[in-house]
Amino acid sequence: MARVDPKAVLEGRIPGRPPVALIVGMTVSGLCAAIALGITALYGGPGFWVGALLAIVPIPMLIALALTLDRLEPEPPRALAFSFMWGAGVAVLGALVLNTAGLLYVTVPIFGESEGHFVSATFGAPVIEETLKGAALFVMLWVRRNEIDGFADGIVYAAMVGLGFAMMENITYYMRAYEEGGTEQLGAVFILRGLIMPLSHPLFTAMTGLGVAYAATHRRGQLVAPLAGLLGAIVLHGLWNGAATLGGLGGLAIVYALDFCILVALVAIVFFERRSTVRRIETYLPTYAATGLVTQQDIRMLRSLPARRAARRWARLVGGPVAGQAMADYQLAATELVLLHKRADRGVADPNWFVTRRDALLSLMGLSRQAFLRTQAGARARRAGVPPWAGQGRSGFLPPRPPDPPGPYGR
């Protein structure tokens, strides 16, 4: 039997090398990021290296924070990397060229030096930057629509684009602060942009992410929802830039409070959407009980993130890393199956694709369970007793007890 690639099944792609579009997108984004860094370094001097270091330092923590929103059904690492690189490459270089051209040839000649910079920052830059960042989400909506299963996915992809953009933009801010005011001004700017409010760009672009996610999971609003999301991102970005350009503690306090409220709202959206998915697990998976791939006790495990973690720990304990990975693949395949039914309910799943995708996920659930049982996990699980989520019930991850040997008088 041919070896199955669990990641390919979960990501809904053909096993083998990555898609050509992804390779092209990553290559173009990387080249754009290199060009943007080269231009910045050319005019930056020693301050460039200080700015680059400080811009990179908080990124791993911020990425980890963004990914905590997507623990129930993690997105493919390749797609996340593409989103980040688009923000750091294509969006940054495009904004650098268009913002500079707009400032030199439009706003300053029309409004003068001082007002031209204000108009460019408040009205021009938000339109250019949010359109360029949102283009990554529009590309995914066009090419990988089925990868976006809900608002959480749209928010996470938007956050990755925004973090890539913010990292590159912060290099310039830190570089200028170091050259103009030394370490004291650099420290103040780093605290403001890197610690107090490092999620401004992800928050802006999250509005576009919400619109794209709605379009990907609903039959209506295919054009209106993404454009409305993009408009929301532009407005928020413009408010932020306007308040920062005008200065004053009152204006900055208002935009900080607004962004904090938006952050709370986004977390609430993810929380309620996750609860909805959990309820759907209890609705759809029992229909597959007859296949033997899931029991009522296994559904109890799948509907809770703490129970899922406990199941993976138990699998690693009784069968090592292979068994732990098999349990993780089983859990993700079951979640993808539920989200597939959610798409079908909303009428956005092609019937032929639905059947093919459903069968692939069911096959992966079965193969993952078999992989678990083929390891020493089966015997160890029997000695370890009932899985922690099963109670007195039955679980597909506990092998059947071997029959008792016949007695001296037969059976």
From TrEMBL:
<feature type="transmembrane region" description="Helical">
    <location>
        <begin position="246"/>
        <end position="272"/>
    </location>
</feature>
<protein>
    <submittedName>
        <fullName>PrsW family intramembrane metalloprotease</fullName>
    </submittedName>
</protein>
<keyword id="KW-1133">Transmembrane helix</keyword>
<keyword id="KW-0482">Metalloprotease</keyword>
<feature type="transmembrane region" description="Helical">
    <location>
        <begin position="195"/>
        <end position="216"/>
    </location>
</feature>
<feature type="transmembrane region" description="Helical">
    <location>
        <begin position="48"/>
        <end position="67"/>
    </location>
</feature>
<feature type="region of interest" description="Disordered">
    <location>
        <begin position="383"/>
        <end position="411"/>
    </location>
</feature>
<feature type="compositionally biased region" description="Pro residues">
    <location>
        <begin position="399"/>
        <end position="411"/>
    </location>
</feature>
<dbReference type="InterPro" id="IPR026898">
    <property type="entry name" value="PrsW"/>
</dbReference>
<keyword id="KW-0812">Transmembrane</keyword>
<feature type="transmembrane region" description="Helical">
    <location>
        <begin position="118"/>
        <end position="143"/>
    </location>
</feature>
<feature type="transmembrane region" description="Helical">
    <location>
        <begin position="155"/>
        <end position="175"/>
    </location>
</feature>
<keyword id="KW-0378">Hydrolase</keyword>
<feature type="transmembrane region" description="Helical">
    <location>
        <begin position="20"/>
        <end position="42"/>
    </location>
</feature>
<keyword id="KW-0645">Protease</keyword>
<dbReference type="Pfam" id="PF13367">
    <property type="entry name" value="PrsW-protease"/>
</dbReference>
<dbReference type="GO" id="GO:0008237">
    <property type="term" value="F:metallopeptidase activity"/>
</dbReference>
<keyword id="KW-0472">Membrane</keyword>
<feature type="transmembrane region" description="Helical">
    <location>
        <begin position="223"/>
        <end position="240"/>
    </location>
</feature>
<feature type="transmembrane region" description="Helical">
    <location>
        <begin position="79"/>
        <end position="106"/>
    </location>
</feature>
